[in-house]
Amino acid sequence: MVGEPVNLNEFQELAREALPKMYYDFYAGGAEDQYTLEENMEAFRRIMIQPRILVDVSRIDLSTNVLGYNISAPILIAPTALHKLAHPEGEVVTARAAAACKTIMALSFTSSCTLEEVASSCNAVRFFQIYVYKRRDLSALLVQRAERNGYKALVLTADSPRVGRKEADIKNKMILPKLKNTERFLSLEASSDNGSNLAAFAKETKDASFCWKDIEWLSTITNMPILIKGLLTREDAIKAVKVGVAGIVVSNHGGRQLDYAPATITVLEEAGLSLYCLAKERLSLLSTQLVCWWFKLLEGEFLFSLMEECGEEQMSSRH
């Protein structure tokens, strides 16, 4: 590519040129036929903007509030794995970028850097993303470490009791490097008959029986608010409110988990309005596109933050 990149698509093309194919495919690829991955982008392209004219735009303020934390715009950095595959400093520089942009970073449990290293790198507001494992003691330990190091919320990924079948990873024989947050507790020596250990590792470590009733267990081991990530339906959005989480992230895992799931933007209204009807006295709706700038497609994820005060007038003004 000639010249400096000026948009996300051009950064992605630079990544394709710079990264080993195995790593680029790991970042950019989706599950199975990649239909949902492609639909995430196509669904946005079908949305047209109807501009209003002769409006005073001399002062524009995109700042908003998520769980009580002020950010410069409704854009957060999504939890994504293994940043050192793309940059030698990994998630540390991602956190510094979040701080510079005055926004929130959600650190993945599968980060290349430890949660302590990221916490000490800058003063960004940080959330911590977790799965629940067969070894509940390990999940509890990670939560305690996050809380002790100043992370402000937990993002529980709930849409992957089994890992999505990413055919590019199988063809490339993608092997997970050491996971810094768990290397003393979890072995990556998972056996696999297809050349990649991703699915085998997930099968051996994740608790496939984890369900709604277990959210209560998670809430007993932390004082941090809990966000559930991976919802796509009004039924699950309503359940999330009933179990008392602080918010939800409407997400199809960037098309990396269950192929032929709907594009997130197409179910956003259903999930948001169902919550509004159920709990409009305390719902703060943020149509928040979570973007990871680490050479990755737009996740198409949206955060609904359940706050204490949000009147009907405020809600209406956001539609």
Can you tell me the residue ranges where pLDDT is under 50 for at least 5 consecutive residues? 281-300, 306-319
Q: For the residues shown, what is the average pLDDT? A: 83
Which strand order spans the largest sheet, edge to edge or round the barrel? Answer: 4-5-6-7-8-11-9
| Radius of gyration of CA atoms, rounded to a whole number | 19 Å
Distance between the termini: 39 Å
Strand content: 5-15%
Please estimate the helix content. Answer: 25-40%
The coarse overall form would be globular
Largest beta-sheet details: 7 strands, mixed
Number of strands: 11
| Number of contiguous helices | 12
The H/E string reads: HHHEEEHEHEHEHHHEHEHEEEH
The SS-based structural class is alpha/beta
